[in-house]
Structures are given as structure tokens and as C-alpha cells.
From TrEMBL:
UniProt-recorded name of the protein: Acetyltransferase
Gene3D superfamilies per the UniProt record, alphabetical: 3.40.50.20, Hexapeptide repeat proteins
Residue ranges occupied by any PglD N-terminal domain in the UniProt entry: 4-80
Lineage top rank: taxon: Bacteria
UniProt organism field: Metabacillus flavus
SUPFAM superfamilies: Trimeric LpxA-like enzymes
InterPro entries for the chain: AcTrfase_PglD-like, PglD_N, Trans_hexapeptide_repeat, Trimer_LpxA-like_sf
Short name of any one Pfam family annotated for the protein: PglD_N
């Protein structure tokens, strides 16, 4: 099995680790997080800060950033400076992924997720538990689709956008980069970048361009 280094030690990391184990492709050799001030070993797994990432053999080791927040995941990616091909794809065995769908590097496909025909999923995305990504969707990098959210056909999601739990986006709509769709919302219109939209139907509740520009 290929060695795998998990970046992040929070709740999202727990799910990612289980998927990695179930894949039977990877062996977790380290969990790195700056919550660790020193290097320790437990059950043959190294625990330590992010600063030791370059101590691993990049020719054989794969990495995975297991951090749920899109902004933080993006910043960690920039900090590590690793090429995309160094990152693993992790797909839970209960997920249904079309043979014509494309899944990017560093992306996690969680239990019972469905990714249908000709969908394209960018790098470092999270398709969370029970989410549905219908045909011809296009998701840019660092997108998070929360549990039980549904993207119907031909939806486009911009970089860093977050679709809340059980939200629905109707066909052909565009969600701008770094925007957030509130949990349980129904999106029937395009949503611009750098804003929060929520409700049934979803309307813009807040704009936060300054925060997005700092990413």
C-alpha cells in the first residue's frame, strides 16, 4: 500500500482516515497538525507539526489535507507548496461515482455520495455524506458540498464556495467563488461571488468581499 500523510487532526480528519483505511490502497503513516508541538509515534503513525512534511519521501508518499473549512484548506495547500500529483483522491466504497465523472486531486467523496455522468470535480473538494452531484456539474477547486445537499444538472460552483447541508441548486445555476449557500436553502437564481445566500428561495443576505480578498 502507498504511504499516506493526513494533514489535519479535527473531526473531518476522522472521516478521511476511515475512508483511507477502507480504500485498501493507502497506509496512513503520519497525521500532521500544528496542534502538535513535538513529534510522537503511536501505533506506527507519526504525529507532529506541519513543519516536518518535507521529511517524507515525496516520490512515494501521498498527502491529503483533511480540513473542512475551505479557506483554511486553501491556505494550508499554499503553505505546503506541494504539486497536485502529490495528493491522493479518497472515495468511500459506498459512494456511486460515474465512470464518466472526473475527480480532482485531494478531493474526498464521502459515504453514500452520488456523482453522476460527466460531472467534473476540482482539486481539494469535499463531497460530504449523502450529497448528490448530478450530470454535467462543474465544481472548481476547494468547494465543499455539505451532507445531503443536491446539485441538479449542469450546475457550476466557483472556487471555494460552500453549499450548506440539505440545500438544493436547480439546473443550470451558477454559484460564484467563495460564496456560501445556507443550510436548507433552495437556489433558483445565479448567486454572485463573495456573498451569503439563504432561504427558500435563496436571496443574498450578506456580502463579505474583504474576507474573500484576504484568502
Amino acid at each position: 500500500m502507498d504511504p499516506l500523510v493526513i494533514i489535519g487532526n479535527g473531526g473531518h480528519s476522522k472521516v478521511v482516515r476511515e475512508i483511507a483505511i477502507l480504500s485498501k490502497v493507502y497506509e496512513i503513516v503520519a497525521i500532521l497538525d500544528d496542534c502538535f508541538s513535538e513529534i510522537t509515534m503511536m501505533e506506527n503513525i507519526v504525529y507532529g507539526p506541519l513543519s516536518i512534511v518535507k521529511d517524507f519521501n515525496l516520490t512515494v508518499t501521498k498527502f491529503f489535507i483533511s480540513i473542512g473549512d475551505n479557506f483554511t484548506r486553501h491556505k494550508i495547500f499554499q503553505r505546503l507548496g506541494l504539486a497536485e500529483h502529490h495528493y491522493a483522491r479518497l472515495i468511500h466504497p459506498s459512494a456511486i461515482v460515474s465512470k464518466t465523472a472526473a475527480i480532482g486531486y485531494g478531493t474526498a467523496v464521502m459515504p453514500n455520495c452520488i456523482v453522476n455522468a460527466e460531472a467534473t470535480i476540482g482539486n481539494h473538494c469535499i463531497l460530504n455524506t449523502g450529497s448528490i452531484i448530478e450530470h454535467d456539474n462543474l465544481l472548481q477547486e476547494f468547494v465543499h458540498i455539505s451532507p445531503n445537499a443536491t446539485l441538479t444538472g449542469s450546475v457550476k460552483i466557483g472556487m471555494g464556495a460552500h453549499i450548506g447541508a440539505s440545500a438544493t441548486v436547480i439546473p443550470g445555476k451558477i454559484i460564484g467563488e467563495w460564496s456560501v449557500i445556507g443550510a436548507g436553502s433552495t437556489v433558483i437564481d445565479h448567486v454572485p461571488s463573495h456573498c451569503l445566500a439563504a432561504g427558500v428561495p435563496a436571496v443574498i443576505k450578506k456580502r463579505y468581499e474583504k474576507r474573500r480578498q484576504e484568502v
